[in-house]
Amino acid sequence: RLPAGLRRLEERTFWHCALLEELTLPETLEFLGEGQFQDGVPLRNIVIPHGVTQIESASFAGCTALSQVQFPDALTFIGEMAFSGCRELGELRIPESVTEIADDAFEECAKLTFLAVPDSAGHRYAEKNGIPFRLRTAAD
Question: pTM score, two decimals?
């Protein structure tokens, strides 16, 4: 369990934590550093707190068991290789607030489907990269 009031997790805090299957991030969290859960961390699902506006590079890269991610509505950026190699990742609701998704953010995510608002960054990324998608309204 992480301490209440925690605002930042610096780079690679949980890197290679091979036994970490479950984690609740505190609602006070505002920053997740690069490579946070990279390479072999067996997380199955994660809820990103409301204060986090960016998913940094390689944050979840190689989390092969990760199947569900809940993004905050304030999210604006998803970095390079952020979810690369997350083979079990299923449907992701991409918030309308997201303005940029790095080209290789979702490489090797064979089961991935985006749920995105028409003409949003998520919709454009899915079309450009051949990711299946479903359109939603801004209220969904």
Answer: 0.94
